[in-house]
Amino acid sequence: MPHSVHDEPTAMDIVRDNNMEGKLLGKWAVITGSSSVTGIEIVRALAATGLRLILPVPNQAKAIVTLGDAYNPNRIEFVTIDHTSLDSVREAAKHIVSKTEKISLLVCNETVTPSPDLQLTKDGFEMQFATNHLSHFLLFQLLKPELLAASRPRFQSRVIIVACAEHNRHGLNERGNYNFEKRGYDSAIAYAQSKTANVYMANEIERRYGSRGLHALSIDSAQITVGAAQQTGGESLRLDLQSEARSKSCSRGTPTIIRGAIGREWEGKGGRYLSHCAGAPSKNSEEDLHGTTCAKHTYSPADEARLWEDSLEMIGLLDDQ
Ligand SMILES: NC(=O)c1ccc[n+]([C@@H]2O[C@H](COP(=O)([O-])OP(=O)(O)OC[C@H]3O[C@@H](n4cnc5c(N)ncnc54)[C@H](OP(=O)(O)O)[C@@H]3O)[C@@H](O)[C@H]2O)c1
């Protein structure tokens, strides 16, 4: 169906096309990074579905200002979080589960502003790996009972992990080198590793919990903004993102996230990396119209399992399977 400018759907178009306006009343969602350019669009679209939103943010007063007219106090609650600290994530998770026993949707969108030099969090992990991946991995583990409890045949629970086409640049470092212990640090490579970790986390969630009604997708949310494109410190990434083929306004960067989060075609499904509102094609495929493809390493069950095991050890949790 034709939509708006340039015939591309907006996030709100996806909500309307799926006939989801007001359809998720009574259900809860948690969205990280909600005060980012992407986050504001996600909040606006998901609020229109009737979902009650819990937004973990570093600064609630600032978030209200940033959200602007997307802030609806009747639909939105905040909890404080600092993704650079695993203790803060544990504290935030405690507050979230004190508000609701059932969570139908978790959107992991937060990203940190990296420095060009190696920085470790106070827990001792490389900053981008720690914030983009580990903090979300811990948050997922702590909210998993509520996600499983919320799953219903008509709307099975979903985890949406906002990744990036930049994950194509680099897979996971080897065991013992996630924090660049063995080689020189490169901020753009560290970003790519953290985004590959996002993809792997979604793939592994699907493998482990899909049959229990908890599904996960990872999503390329490329757009031209002041956000991640400027943060990686990688000039080539900046140029990549500014190329005409990748040029999308914010409202056209988020539809894929919203489609994964509430779209009917993804009901009861997961384990895919999405780009441009669909499963991303393989590299060099004729479908590769936008330069946003899967890498050879986008699906790698062995590395997905390794990351899961190592991440559990890093956050100090035991496997539940
Ligand atoms: N922008 C792009 O072109 C692009 C392309 C592909 C993928 N992506 C992905 O899309 C997602 C959003 O990116 P974006 O560029 O829209 O983000 P952004 O504008 O840089 O915003 C980052 C968000 O994370 C929050 N945040 C930062 N540090 C935090 C911390 N220590 N604790 C808690 N929250 C923290 C920020 O909150 P405050 O504002 O309050 O600090 C903000 O809400 C990311 O996963 C990114 O990798 C972006």
Automatic annotation (TrEMBL):
Pfam families: adh_short (PF00106)
SUPFAM superfamilies registered for this protein in UniProt: NAD(P)-binding Rossmann-fold domains
InterPro entries xref list: NAD(P)-bd_dom_sf (IPR036291), SDR_fam (IPR002347)
Domain of life (superkingdom): Eukaryota
Gene3D superfamilies the UniProt entry points to: NAD(P)-binding Rossmann-like Domain
UniProt keyword terms in alphabetical order: Oxidoreductase
Family indicated by similarity: Belongs to the short-chain dehydrogenases/reductases (SDR) family.
Annotated protein name in UniProt: Uncharacterized protein
Species whose genome carries this gene: Bionectria ochroleuca (Gliocladium roseum)
